[in-house]
Amino acid sequence: MNDQDTAVDTRPTKIMYVAEATAHGGRDGYVTSQDGQIELKVAMPPALGGDGNGTNPEQLFAAGYSSCFHNALILVGNREGYDLTGSTVAAKVGIGPNKHRGYGLAVALSVSLPVLDAGVAAKLVDAAHEVCPYSNATRGNVDVSILLG
């Protein structure tokens, strides 16, 4: 039996919303969203040989993952009746070559739950990691570490 046979199916049973975005020019161009809310210049970061004169896909992924994970954390916290005042989630997304002549990502989430004790905070973070769509999408594909501080 392989991991596919024992993995929990996290695919949606119903699509409730579809986001649309279009890239123009790859990593040295711009991105737009269908609704006009996003119109951003993208550029390679200096660490990858670019001028850094724009955002990049890793920053956008970090923004999406951190906000999604924080929302999942708020959801599970509210379900359990906990106060998440002042809580934050920061994400770092790294990119680098993989063993298959392509590139891969690694994610580090830093979660702050200042008004909760460590045991409760850890329980909520674990639950949020099961609920968050980004966590479900990356599980098994991307190394995700979570630091609770």
Protein model, in words:
A three-stranded antiparallel sheet has the order 1-2-3, with no helix packed on it. A three-stranded mixed sheet has the order 4-5-6, covered by helices on one side. A hairpin with a 4-residue loop joins strand 1 and strand 2. The chain is of the alpha+beta class. The radius of gyration is 17 Å and the shape is globular. Helix 2 crosses helix 3. Belongs to the OsmC/Ohr family. This is Organic hydroperoxide resistance protein. InterPro entries: KH_dom-like_a/b (IPR015946), OHR (IPR019953), OsmC/Ohr_fam (IPR003718), OsmC/Ohrsf (IPR036102).
Cα distance, first to last residue? 37 Å
Quick one: overall form? globular
Give me the strand/helix succession. Answer: HEEEHEEHHE
The strand count comes to 6
Helical fraction:
25-40%
Instruction: Please tell me the overall pLDDT.
Output: 94
Instruction: Report the sheet with the most strands, covering strand number, pairing sense and barrel closure.
Output: 3 strands, antiparallel
Percent strand equals 25-35%
Number of helices: 4
Spatial strand order of the main sheet: 1-2-3
For the CA atoms, what is the radius of gyration? Answer: 17 Å
Structural class: alpha+beta
Low-pLDDT runs: none
Protein name: Organic hydroperoxide resistance protein
Pfam family, one: OsmC
InterPro entries: KH_dom-like_a/b, OHR, OsmC/Ohr_fam, OsmC/Ohrsf
Family: Belongs to the OsmC/Ohr family.
